[in-house]
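Weekly modeling sync, notes
Attendees: S.R. (lead), two postdocs, one rotation student

Agenda item 3: backlog of single-chain predictions. S.R. asked that every request posted to the team notebook include the full sequence so nobody has to chase files. The rotation student volunteered to paste the first one in as an example of the format we agreed on. Action items at the bottom.

Example entry:
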Amino acid sequence: MIILHTARLRLEPITTQHLDGLHEMDRLPEVMRYISGEPASLEQTKAWVARVQRCWAAWGTSWWAFIDPASGRVAGAGCIQHGRTTPNLPDDLQTLRTNPLEIGWRLHPDFWGKGLATEAALRMAAFAFDDLAAPELIANRDPNNKASERVMQRLGMHYRGMEPWYGVPCATHVLSRKAWLLGAGAASASQITPANSGS
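Predicted structure, as returned to the notebook:
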């Protein structure tokens, strides 16, 4: 599993050691407003961590915990994962490998308004295009989630329309590898990524 770094964050593949910090974030209504619509219980967070670990084992990519090095706190979480149209993961995760890679993120409110979502998203996108050779990345959001839309725009993504993902209609954005390499995204990622970015 790959640890990523930005100028202000350490992105660690999610394990049970991140459970408390993740739940501290996911139990907040304002964090889950556009995700599930309701705060997550500790049991729900545990189950989600277990699913994430399955995905890491199957794909070599999934969700990272965003760690604030100064405090050691979980500042957020983000992913490069294979998207799916159904609400639940299938038993055989390899069946999702033909689906496009998806980028996603969320932050604890204590870390909102600092540009950290964009910083982490740029690093994860660089991982998807440079390490995984993704031909494109998609991102899905609730149509009312304007904050995520702004991050998607900063990545250079364009709106493709309303599409069914995870069993619900989502506003879907897309970024091709060519657009990433030709656009500002790759250059911005190189500026916010320390030299020792992988381990």
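Discussion: group reviewed the output briefly. The radius of gyration is 16 Å.
Action items: rotation student to repeat for the remaining queue; S.R. to check formatting next week.
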